[in-house]
Structures are given as structure tokens and as C-alpha cells.
Amino acid sequence: MGKPKNAISPTREENYPEWYQQVVKAADMAENTPVRGCMVIKPWGYGIWENIRDALDVMFKETGHKNAYFPLFIPKSFLQREAEHVDGFAKECAVVTHSRLEADEAGILQPAGKLDEPLIVRPTSETIIGELFARWVQSYRDLPLLINQWANVVRWEMRPRLFLRTAEFLWQEGHTVHATAREAVEETELMLRTYADFSENWLAMPVLRGEKTESERFPGAESTLCIEAMMQDRKALQAGTSHFLGQNFSKACGIKFQGVEGKEEFGWTTSWGVSTRLIGGMIMTHADDDGLIVPPKVSPTHAVILPVTPKEDSREQVLDACHALARELRDNSFAGAPIRVDIDDRDLRGGEKYWQWVKKGIPLTIEIGPRDLEKGSVFVGRRDLGAQREPMSRDDLLANIPELLDQIQQTLFSRALAFRDEHTREIDNKEELYSYFTPENKSKPEIHGGFAWVHWDRDPKWEEALKNDLKVTVRCIPENGGDPGVCIFSGNPSPGRVVLAKSY
Predict the structure, then answer these.
(1) CA distance 44 to 247
(2) What angle do CA 160, 115, 121 make, to 5 degrees?
(3) What is the pLDDT of residues 302-332, one digit of tens each?
(4) pTM for the complete prediction?
(5) Residues 282, 365: one domain?
(6) Using CA atoms, how far apart are residues 381 and 63, in angstroms rounded to an integer?
(7) Is residue 320 part of a domain?
(8) Residue 176 · residue 147 · CB < 8 Å
(9) Which domain holds residue 134?
(10) How far apart are CA 65 and CA 144, in angstroms?
(11) What is the Cα–Cα distance from 127 to 291, expressed in whole angstroms?
(12) For strand 424-426 and strand 451-455, is the pairing parallel, antiparallel, or unpaired?
């Protein structure tokens, strides 16, 4: 029996990193540009980002946050105010040193107009926002200050990968100031829950919630909370973070207020963010060897109608039927908005057109031809079930399309959760742990490992050993780490299990 044909080559098992790149390409989501490390997000990919952005924006506003916009450029001296912060980002910074270009004797443009102070292209905005918050906060009556911005940032990545790591990417960053540490901690926890809710209910991507270790936390933070998702190569992806900054940035930036009793106090701050990396996580959670699979809630289009017109004399009739069906479908709603329907009437062969949409991961394809008109039926393909298509009456489709989309959404989440559960285990000795994360074929490693829940005494030397020996990190100290136990490395008491994995 011959090997089954797939639309994407290589398959996940054959070469997962290359499979990922080919899925992005086949879905026409993004591509590299002449600027190293920077991507163009094409309409299908950007449509997904718009839906991510719009859904999260509603969630942020429901929790009291307002949007603003801050400068792209940050004076170098601002970044130096918080020592840990500058150390954490210095190697990734892009720096502007001149304000104009002038032609030299050979007519070649050269930088001119050297700046009095270099400007950092925004890698994150804590310091510049802190400077402005110091102007806005004067009294306890000004608190809490709850601000979010949708923006782009630049971090000079050495090994870029579309959506996962690029020199420039899109994101949101929330920044807040509070009168007490307790309120700031509650804000940090609230936003992590918001990210987890969105990841699971919109992206259909199960996540673990927990806290980063000291070595993995955000530079300058007192604590960093995170959500971690398992990709289909069993590696972890940090999908979002929320940081309790304490008073570190308040003291560095001068964010002070007059308290209820008239005493001057430093504010307690937080920051939190997600980025276009979420799209990379969505791809690696759901895509298969035929291409992308997009959860309906974030898909730019829910359904595409494909007219089947083998004969010219029936073409007009079929197209009229397609447009009529599209109008009726749009009268339905899903996830709080009208169902999004396209008609693809391009002059392409039916099979070619259909497979283009399969590779884009659209939730539903609907084919209509002359015979379907006679029967009052359509031919429906559910992307979550692969490339198979089944007949359905037109009336049943109209009556059930919201339910169909919801079924697809739930199927994707359940499948991803089952995959994570299958590749998660509790490990209670070092030898088993090392075996778990060691591939059988070291020259060409197969997909291996997963999430390992282990007892650790919190001594950082063991964390460093895992990085060096296995390229494994502590992904998080989970909210539900369980009862105390015995560290598998030292034999000392452990306050609870942590989650270990290889990661992106």
C-alpha cells in the first residue's frame, strides 16, 4: 500500500520545523521580507490577528482598561533606570543614532545629524510609560490607572521564525498603577486568567497557568505569571505573561502619589502582554499534514461557498444560488457576530480551489453545483475532520451552521487537550526524566518528551543543569503543583511539583 498523500511536505513527523514553515506558506499567511528577521503579515494571517485583537480588546475593556498609544522611541537613559531591565533587553535593542541621511562625494547616502542621545526602538515600554505615568499620578484618587496599548515592538532576534520569533512583531502591552501591593497582585492574576480564558475559549488552545522561576521572570519584575501551551512536537510555548513589578519601576521612574493620610508613596505597578506569537501557537496546536486549521472564533471567514460550474449554461443559476445562500447564512450569528461568508468564484479548477481553502484552514467549505440545486442540497466540508466532505440539505445547513461552528471549536479544544494529557506525566526519579527528554536518534531527533511534572527543591543549580544537559527548562510553577514531596535531584524536601519541557 502506498504512502498517503498530504498537501504539506514534509509532514510533522518527518521534519516539524520545516512543516511549520510550509503550513504558513501554503495558507498564504505571511512571508519573509528583504529586511532580515521581519515579516509581512498577509491578509489571511492579519485577519486572524484582527480577530484576536478585537476579542481581547473587549475583554480588557470589560475589566476597566482603556487604550492609549505611547512613543515608538525610548531615550537610552530611560532604559538604564532599572538595572535588571536594561540587562535583560540590552542585547535585543535596535538603536537610532542619527536623524537624517546626506549624500557623500560619491552620491551614497550616509547617516548625518548625530543625536544628542541615542533612541531605543521600543522593545517594551515600561520605562517610557513609567515616565509619563509619573506625570499622570499625583493622588490616590488617580488610582488605579489601567492602560493598554496595541503596538509593534522590535527585538533583534538572531534566529527568526515567522510568527514565533521576528525582529518586529505586533502585540499588546498593559500597564497599570495601584495604591497597594495587594491590588497590583490581584491585577496580575486577573490578566493571566483573562489570557487563559482567551487562549482556551477562542484559540481552542489548552494552557497551564503558573509562575516563572526567578531565572525566567521578566527583567525587573518581582514575579512573572505565565500561560504555557503544548505544541504538537510536545514542546512548550509561552503564550502570555503577566508581571507584578512591585515598586521597582515606580522608584526608577518617580511614580509617586499622595496617600489617603497625606503621605507620599510609590505606586505599585504591573505589566502584561501577548503578541502575534499566539498565531504561531494556534498553528502548531491545530494544523495537520494538509495545512492550517483555524478555530472558527478567530477565523477571518467562517465558510466559503465554492460554485461548481462544469457547464457555462448553468453558471449564472449556480452563482445566483450561491449568493442567495450567502445572504441567508450571514443572517445567522456565531460568537456574538454575524457569520462571515465568502464566495470564491475565481476561474480555477474545482479541486485546486477547494484545496487552497483546505490549506488555509477555513472551518467550512460549501460546494454547490447544478445537481445540488435540483436536490436542494449542498456539499459541506468540516476542516476539523480532515479533507472529507458530505452532502447536507440546504435547510439543515441554514438551521445548524452556528452549532456546526461551535462543534468545530469544541472538537479542536478537546483534541488538543487530549494530546496534552497523553504526553504529560509525573516523573519521580532523575534517570526516568533524562530518558524522557533524550531522543532515540540523537543525530536526527524524533518528536519526543512532553510535559514532565517533577518535584524540585527550588535550588537553581538543578535548573541550570537541565538547561545544559537536556535543553529543558522549568516552564512554570503551576497553580496546582500538588502536595510537597522529595526533589528528584537532591533528595531534599520539595514544596510541590513544577512543569519541565523543551520549549520555543
Answers:
(1) 42
(2) 25
(3) 999 999 998 899 999 999 999 999 999 999 9
(4) 0.96
(5) no
(6) 38
(7) yes
(8) yes
(9) 16-94+122-286
(10) 10
(11) 41
(12) parallel
